[in-house]
Every structure is written in structure tokens, then in C-alpha cells.
Request: fold
Amino acid sequence: MDARERLIEELRAHALIIGEVTLTSGAVAQYYVDSKRAIMLPVGFAALGELVAAKAAELGATAVGGMTMGADPVACSALAAGANVKLFFVRKEAKQHGLSRRIEGPLLDPGERCLVVEDVVTSGGSTVRAIEAVREGGHEVVGVVSVLDRLAGGAAAIEAAADAPYTALSTIDDVYPDRSDRELT
Reply:
């Protein structure tokens, strides 16, 4: 079983929750994927790290990160898997004290090649905000990776904002193929 298959298996076993929930976007869904329940366990973390580190190397990324909370374990997994990158976390707003930074972590050099990561993508809003912050900081976005895409339009928003390749390591079709709202074509 390869890393992607292990990740999907862990998401199915630990992260899929059936029942009504309100998403960050405000939409109501009949299921939820709390990916942190899977990717913050040893098997899921190792599989994720292998996949994100490989994508960072493929794209020539020198830094990996995204909007804090969603991106934190995803970025950390790449470093743990041996990726030779800096980690960064984007705050929703710059701190009002200390160094007043919006992007936390080691200083990113001008033009740093950033791989933006996210745990779950629905509308893509938080990922787009992270992309904007990275660019405002004077850095290049070389790609975007999500652990899971809910296939709810977020990919199009991310691709338009990033002007770089977007990769979903898994989709809701992989994790919950029998859901009632699945569009069959």
C-alpha cells in the first residue's frame, strides 16, 4: 500500500464523521472530514509527510506552510519527512504586538518558493487568503496541496488565485464514495 492509499485509509478510519455540521463557509453538510483526527496520528502523519515532502521536492519549494490551524500539521509533516524547507504559518491578521508579523516562522527570503498547504478544502477561501498573504510578503507560490478536497468548488478558486498547480492528495470521493450528495456522471 502506497502513501496515498495509507492516507485515505486513515482518513476513512479516523476523520470521517457522518451527521449534520456547519462548515467554515457557512454551508451545512451531512458529513464532515476532521482530517486532523487522522493526520495527527503516526500512520496518517507519516503518509502525509511522504506525500507533501515529495510534492515540495517536485516543485522546487523552499518553504511550506499556509493558514494556521489547517496548514500546521500538513507543513510539519513535510519537515518531519525530511523535506529541506522552511516552515511558515499565516495568521488571519498581523499580530498587534511583538514583531507584528502575519507570516510566522523563520524569515522567508524575498522570492522564496512557497508550497501552500491546507488540510480540507471546501470553498477554498482560507487557502486563497494564505496565497494572498504569501504574495503580499514578496514570495512566489509554486503550488498548493490539500489533504482532502470536498469537491465543492474550492479547487477552481485556488487555481485562479495561485496561478500554480493545485493537488488534492485525496477527495471526498476517495474517503466517502457512498455519500448521498455524490454527483454521478
